[in-house]
Amino acid sequence: MLERSTVIQELTKVIDPELGVAITELDLVEEVKVKDGSVSVQYHLTSNYCPPQFALVIGLDIKSRVSKLTGVKNFNQTIIGHFLADDINKQLNK
Predict the structure, then answer these.
(1) pTM over 0.85
(2) Mind listing the domains of the chain with CATH numbers?
(3) For a surface tag, which of 41, 56, 63, 72 has the fewest beta carbons within 10 Å of its beta carbon?
């Protein structure tokens, strides 16, 4: 069974491309929920105006790493607080 701690451990491998530090070390992860194979991750970026290309890099890395974990059936992520959050979220959750 997939555990929340497993997802969080995987998120420690996601590195902010601009700072070179894990998103977990930067305290960017707001919430991780795991239930019956459905995983959702909510996070913010280092700035509300973080360049969208960095937001996409981080989001795609999160999606790639978490989606491959054994037991993940559905994955959704949400960036909060970014000026283009709605557009980025749509792109990442296709």
Answers:
(1) yes
(2) 4-92 (3.30.300.130)
(3) 56
